[in-house]
Specification:
Family: Belongs to the leucine-binding protein family.
Number of domains: 2
Organism: Paracoccus zhejiangensis
Protein name: Branched-chain amino acid ABC transporter substrate-binding protein
Keywords: Amino-acid transport, Signal, Transport
Pfam families: Peripla_BP_6
Number of strands: 12
CATH class of the largest domain: Alpha Beta
Order of helices and strands: HHEHEHEHEEHEHEHEEEHHHEE
Distance between the termini: 51 Å
Structural class: alpha/beta
CATH superfamily of the largest domain: Response regulator
Helix content: 25-40%
Length: about 400
């Protein structure tokens, strides 16, 4: 203690510290990257959903600020390189990042691109999937080097199903889109119905025929067409939309033939995050993001933030910058991270999916949070959401 006081006083007096002491004060840099793969396609139905230039990146910037807040006391400094790529350039960008020594890559991409990048990375980097929801990525196509921060289709379907069954709205009219991602989500709703005792009374496909979706006369056509499309369905309590491609679901509320609530891809929507979330300290979190980005937080922002917080939490608790040490800890049963959702979030060892509650949201508010209290599990209530250990097709 006496020697430490002398050194401190000497430094304050302007004397040069020994080289060893100067080196000890140097923070250790923990590098990561956020690789966003922009897939050009149709714009969203609503102009309110148009992607921002900083989508995902803004959440990453807040995470780095949060990591540094703790890291500066631990002698750690965090960095996240931001890369916007296309499906054609994503592979080259990933190789470039890994070539620069980055071993943690947050990926914001669709299912096929996420899988291809995970295979490309191999054992050279840990991929943190912050967007793709396909159940195959957690099942037959799972990869050991991938942690899924984004909730799966099975998780969001189960979260919604629990609430609907609690409401005793157990007869569902399922409308699915004609794209592969729509089919994957529809299958998740089918499993959820069987799992929680609901019944799909009819399944109907909405074919995507192309053409303009946002025109001055769009609402006029929808008002005529959507009631006709949804008529003559068997008696049902709710309309469930499986529309990951964002083609038709937003047109369903208030336009169905029978007056029924709409849920799934429109109406009551299960999400990982919502800008109206205020519980569990989220208000302060939302305020910080809005101050940084000048807009509200979207799901991609939250999932990118959470992915980088996983790295920061591991580095802080292990007091290490060694990527191998951090990877091992993240995948261990001792790891957990806070996500402003009321409980600790952990990684499932059988498919590397991050356990997390699912928010059930309307346009302006949260209606509920799943898992619902009456659905119990022998290990964790969060494992009532998604594919549980006995059901998994994942084999690392």
């Amino acid at each position: 203690m006496f020697q430490r006081i002398i050194i401190l006083l000497a430094g304050l007096a302007g004397f040069a510290l020994p080289a060893v002491a100067q080196q000890a004060a140097e923070p250790v840099l923990i590098r990561s990257a956020v690789l966003r793969v922009d897939n050009p396609g149709l714009p969203p139905i609503s102009r309110l959903e148009l992607p921002t230039e900083d989508l995902g990146f803004a959440g990453a910037r807040l995470a780095i600020e949060d990591n540094d807040t703790t890291g500066r006391f631990m002698g750690q400094d965090f960095e996240a390189v931001e890369v916007a790529a296309t499906p054609e350039t994503a592979a080259a960008e990933l190789d470039k990042l890994i070539g620069e020594g980055i071993q943690f890559v947050v990926v914001l991409a669709d299912d096929p691109t996420t899988l291809a990048l995970a295979d490309q990375a191999g054992d050279r980097a840990l991929i943190l999937n912050a967007l793709a929801r396909g159940d195959n990525l957690r099942g037959a196509d799972c990869r050991f080097n991938t942690v899924h921060v984004a909730p799966s289709h099975a998780m969001i379907a189960d979260g919604l199903a629990q609430f609907l069954v609690w409401k005793q709205w157990q007869n569902w009219f399922l409308i699915k889109g004609s794209h592969p991602q729509d089919e994957d989500l529809a299958q998740a709703f089918q499993r959820a119905a069987t799992k929680f005792g609901a019944k799909i009374v009819e399944e109907r496909v909405y074919e995507d025929t192309g053409g303009a979706r946002r025109t001055d006369s769009g609402h006029v056509q929808v008002q005529k067409q959507m009631p006709v499309f949804t008529q003559r369905a068997p008696e049902h309590d709710a309309v469930i939309a499986a529309d990951e491609a964002d083609i038709f679901a937003a047109y369903l509320p208030y336009q169905t033939w029978d007056p029924r609530p709409v849920a799934g891809s429109a109406g009551l929507v299960p999400r990982s995050w919502h800008p109206a979330m205020e519980a569990w300290g989220a208000t302060q979190f939302q305020n910080r993001f809005e101050k940084l980005a000048g807009r509200q937080m979207r799901e991609a922002d939250y999932q990118a933030w959470l992915a980088l917080r996983i790295i920061g939490e591991a580095a802080t608790r292990q007091q290490s910058a060694d990527p191998a040490v951090l990877k091992e800890f993240i995948l261990s049963p001792d790891f957990d991270v806070a996500g402003f959702k009321g409980q600790k979030l952990t990684v499932r060892d059988w498919d590397h999916q991050l356990r997390q509650p699912i928010l059930l949201t309307t346009g302006l508010l949260m209606a509920s949070v799943s898992p619902q209290d009456q659905f119990l599990h022998q290990t964790s209530a969060l494992d009532t959401l998604g594919i549980d250990r006995p059901e998994t097709e994942c084999s690392f």
